[in-house]
Amino acid sequence: MPAVVLPEAIHENIFDEVKMSKDIEKSAKNEEKTQNKNPLIEWCLETNAHGLGNIFKSDNWFLRIIWIILTLASAAGCLYCKSNIINSKF
Questions:
Q1: pTM over 0.70
Q2: Is the confidence at residue 62, as pLDDT, over 80?
Q3: Where are the alpha helices (DSSP H) in the chain?
Q4: Contact assessment for residue 67 and residue 54, using Cβ atoms and an 8 Å cutoff
């Protein structure tokens, strides 16, 4: 006797398959980006400084500019704090 398949189960299976295919496409796209020949870009994509990696991972130019601004602002803030500490010691 064949098993009875409920419509909800079919819907959930289709949803899971669509989600999995989108995840596979996204991972393939990220893999393409990480296979660069430039060692500096490869390092930026793999580093824990997420701003650097996000600059190169972003497809949208607006987001890429935002990440550049945020990364430079955080680096400037870090240098400012370090210079204040050094100046207070001497």
A1: no
A2: yes
A3: 7-34, 39-46, 50-57, 61-89
A4: yes
